[in-house]
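so my prof wants the structure for this chain in the tokens format not the other one, which i didnt know existed until like an hour ago. anyway here's the sequence
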Amino acid sequence: MTANATRVLVLNSGSSSVKYQLLDMSDGARLAVGLVERIGEETSRLAHTPLATGGGKRERESRIADHEEALRAVADELAADGLGLDSPELAAIGHRVVHGGLKFTEPTVIDDEVLKEIQRLVPVAPLHNPANITGIKTARALRPDLPQVAVFDTAFHTTMPEHAARYAIDVATADAHRIRRYGFHGTSHAYVSRKTAELLGKAPEDVNVIVLHLGNGASASAVAGGRCVDTSMGLTPLEGLVMGTRSGDIDPAVVFHLKRVAGMDADEIDVLLNKKSGLIGLCGDNDMREIRRRIDEGDRQAALAFDIYIHRLKKYIGAYSAVLGRVDAVAFTAGVGENAAPVREAAVKGLEELGLAVDADLNAVRSDEARLISPEYARVAVAVVPTDEELEIANQTYALVSN
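here's what i got, hopefully its the right format
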């Protein structure tokens, strides 16, 4: 890697989309951001913003058949701004990979064997890893000479002790089929727990944090001294908190009941629990802003959905307080966690005996900055910490290739 190669392109390939950011790691500046969506549909959309040149957002709609065509379109947009993939300043491409199993505990330079292992994990991440693999293969074809790095959502959670990671099922069956709790959103949990320690003016190894990543997908983690010791998502991103369209924790026997009584097959139950449950299943909306608007208008179904959402949050805050023993901070992040003041207030309300409280005025402030929203007297800090998964992926990628 040459001395002036300080740029990292971060790619997040979904089943029908590609999110990307180009960052300069010499100062952390974002040079370009964009999104390609509806890949493979009749009309696809590419939105590109060249921040380095100060240009406005460029959008175009036309059919983009597959991920290879999408990444080539991204490369063309970057080249138009003098930021092309052939630039000698590009040090590496960092890929978000959802599932790394137990094998990948840190960022990893991608070679054929690494790609095969990611492929072998498809059965435990059927919705995510195939799209990640497509993005990796296409990027390698475009720049075969450039280091490609996988940053795994599950990596941060591999520090969980066995008593937290194991399900109480037959060990031989579990091991044969890789059934255990892996956790997700790890890149966000790593970033937010570290930033929370900075906010408190302490080193990460001196701080115990409960991180609440609340978006359409939602997860909680207990982080002791910078290491994850428990997290709410499990074998898949379905377990844990109530989410936008996912049920979260549920009696496993519900699956058998639906099969026997409702005649539903495995695929139908999968769709029900992953896409038709959570907030949208409870009240027909998965946008917290709309749910709060409905509550203000007296909608009882929306109010019940909100109460169920908050009840589950409180249970995890209490459980992870017990797991950690000492809690220094609770940090809210992601779309709902960063923007929904009523969620933060309700989640902490009644937990004064755990040292938690929220200052109403501080909580009402909207800001893009990490900040404390708890009163000075509170024993446990309550923080709002905007997550930055792309920056975390870029940092991990650059650190790996620089060394």
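also thought this was worth mentioning. The chain has 15 helices and 14 strands.
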